[in-house]
Design brief:
The complex is a heterodimer of chains A (275) and B (150). By secondary structure, chain A is an all-alpha fold. Helices cover 78% and strands 0% of the residues of chain A. Chain A is built from eleven helices and no strands. Chain A is globular, with a radius of gyration of 24 Å. The two termini of chain B are 24 Å apart. The chains are: A mainly alpha (275), B alpha+beta (150).
C-alpha cells in the first residue's frame, strides 16, 4: 500500500508520454496535408509564411482552367473504367478461389498480387516498351490496362474477405429452391457481396485516380490529372491553383474512404449474425 | 416402383470411399430416417441426392428418372441445411417465398401460401422479422418451412 501513490504516478507519466507521442505522430502524419488547404486560400502566389489574407481566387481560376478540367475528366474516366473492370475480374477470381477446390489456386493468387511488389517504374517502363513493340499507341486505354495490374489485387483482397464472410450453403440453398446459377447470383450472391463490391469500387477508383508513374509512362498526349499537375509544377505562378485542386481532391478522397469504411461495417455486422 | 431409388452409389473425396455402394429405396409418402455415427457419409449421401455432389459410381433416380447429371436447381428435392442457410438479407416471409418465384403466383395466392406455411411451423406474425434477428428456436423452423412450401 505504501508504494501505490508513487507507482500510479509512474503509470500517469507513462500515459502522458504515450499521449504526447501519439499526438506528435498525428501531427507528423497530417500536418503536411493540412498545408494544402491552408495555402489554397492564401492571397499570395508565393507559398510561404506569414499568410497574407484570405482569397478564393485560386478556386475561381480552377473553374476557368480548361486544360486542367480536361485532365480531371481523363482521370475520372480512367478511374471509373479501372474500378469497374478490376472489381468484375476480382469478383470472378474471388468466387473461384473461395467456392471451388482448384489446382494452382495459391500460385494464381501469388501471380495476381505480384505486380504490387514490382516497382511501378519497372512496370510502367516495361508496359510502355511492350506497347511500342506491339505497335499499339500510348493512350488512356493503356493507362487503364496498367492500372488493372495494381488494382485487381486490391479488389481481390477485399472481395475474398467478403466471400469468406458468408456461408456457401446460402448459394446451395438457392439452387436447392430451384434457382439457376444466374438467378442465384443476382438474388443471393450479389446482395450479400454488395458491401464488398462497393468497397472494392471505391478503393480501386482512388488507387487509379491518384496513380502517377504508370499514367506518366502510358498516357501519351492525354494527361491524367496527376501527370498534368506534375507538368504544371514548372510554372511557379500556377502552384496556388494546383493547391486549390489538391485541397478539393483531398476532401473528395477522404469523403470516399469514410463512405467505403461505413458501407463495409454495415455489411460485416449483418454476416456476423447470419453466420 | 419406388419414388426415390439409389443403386450402388459410391463417393470418395480422393481417399477411402465415404459412401460405399449404397442402395436404398424410398416409397412415396414414406418417412425414411438415415442414422449413423459422425462422418459415416449421411450428409454426403443427402448432398448427392440434392445434386451438390456427383456420385463416382451408381445411379440416383427420382420418380423413375435418372438424376445423376441433373443440376440441383432442376431436381425435385428440398433440403434443410445443417447450418439452416437462412438468407440473412431477406425477412422470414421472403425466405419462405424464395422458391415460389418460378411458380409466378398472383400476389394474394403467394401470400396465402406463405402465411399457411408460417402457421404450420407456428411462426404466425413473424413474417416481417429480419432473418438475422431470429433467435435459435425459430431458425430451423424457417428452414423447414422454406423447404416444405414448394
Amino acid at each position: 500500500m505504501k508504494n501505490s501513490p508513487s507507482s500510479s504516478e509512474a503509470i500517469g507519466h507513462k500515459k502522458s508520454g504515450l499521449f504526447l507521442y501519439a499526438l506528435a505522430y498525428l501531427v507528423f502524419l497530417y500536418g503536411p496535408v493540412l498545408v494544402l488547404p491552408v495555402f489554397s486560400f492564401n492571397n499570395s502566389q508565393f507559398i510561404a509564411f506569414p499568410l497574407s489574407g484570405f482569397t478564393t481566387r485560386w478556386y475561381q481560376g480552377l473553374a476557368a482552367d480548361g486544360a486542367m478540367l480536361h485532365a480531371l475528366g481523363n482521370s475520372l474516366t480512367v478511374g471509373l473504367a479501372t474500378s469497374l473492370l478490376s472489381t468484375m475480374l476480382g469478383l470472378a477470381a474471388a468466387r473461384a478461389v473461395t467456392r471451388y477446390r482448384l489446382r494452382g489456386t495459391g500460385a494464381a493468387l501469388g501471380f495476381i498480387s505480384l505486380p504490387l511488389f514490382i516497382p511501378d517504374i519497372v512496370l510502367g517502363l516495361s508496359l510502355m516498351l511492350l506497347l511500342g513493340a506491339g505497335g499499339l499507341p500510348l493512350s488512356l486505354a493503356a493507362v487503364v490496362l496498367g492500372h488493372l495490374l495494381i488494382c485487381v489485387p486490391f479488389a481481390l483482397t477485399v472481395l475474398i474477405a467478403r466471400f469468406e464472410g458468408f456461408d456457401k450453403n446460402l448459394e446451395e440453398a438457392s439452387a436447392d429452391l430451384g434457382e439457376d446459377p444466374w438467378m442465384t447470383f443476382w438474388r443471393v450472391t450479389f446482395p450479400l457481396m454488395l458491401p464488398g463490391i462497393v468497397a472494392s469500387l471505391l478503393l480501386t477508383f482512388i488507387t487509379s485516380f491518384d496513380e502517377f508513374l504508370l499514367a506518366f509512362f502510358l498516357s501519351g498526349t492525354e494527361a491524367t490529372l496527376p501527370v498534368y499537375i506534375w507538368g504544371q509544377l514548372r510554372f511557379p505562378e500556377r502552384l496556388p491553383t494546383v493547391l486549390a485542386l489538391g485541397a478539393l481532391i483531398l476532401t473528395g478522397s477522404v469523403a470516399l474512404v469514410i463512405l467505403a469504411e461505413y458501407v463495409r461495417n454495415l455489411g460485416s455486422k449483418k454476416t456476423m449474425v447470419g453466420a | 416402383m419406388s419414388f426415390l431409388s439409389l443403386n450402388t452409389v459410391s463417393k470418395s473425396f480422393g481417399g477411402p470411399p465415404v459412401v460405399d455402394a449404397v442402395s436404398l429405396d424410398v416409397q412415396r409418402g414414406e418417412f425414411f430416417a438415415l442414422l449413423g455415427p459422425s462422418g459415416c457419409g449421411k450428409t454426403t449421401l443427402l448432398r448427392m441426392i440434392a445434386g451438390f455432389e456427383t456420385p463416382d459410381a451408381g445411379t440416383i433416380s427420382i420418380d423413375s428418372e435418372t438424376m445423376n447429371t441433373v443440376p440441383p436447381h432442376l431436381r425435385p428435392t428440398n433440403m434443410v441445411f445443417q447450418s439452416y442457410a437462412i438468407f440473412p438479407h431477406l425477412n422470414v416471409f421472403n425466405n419462405i417465398a424464395y422458391g415460389l418465384r418460378k411458380l409466378k403466383l398472383p400476389r394474394d395466392a403467394l401470400r396465402a401460401k406463405v402465411e399457411a406455411m408460417l402457421a404450420t411451423v407456428r411462426l404466425e406474425g413473424l413474417g416481417s422479422r429480419a432473418a438475422d434477428q431470429l433467435s435459435g428456436g425459430p431458425r430451423p423452423r424457417v428452414a423447414l418451412a422454406r423447404a416444405l412450401v414448394r
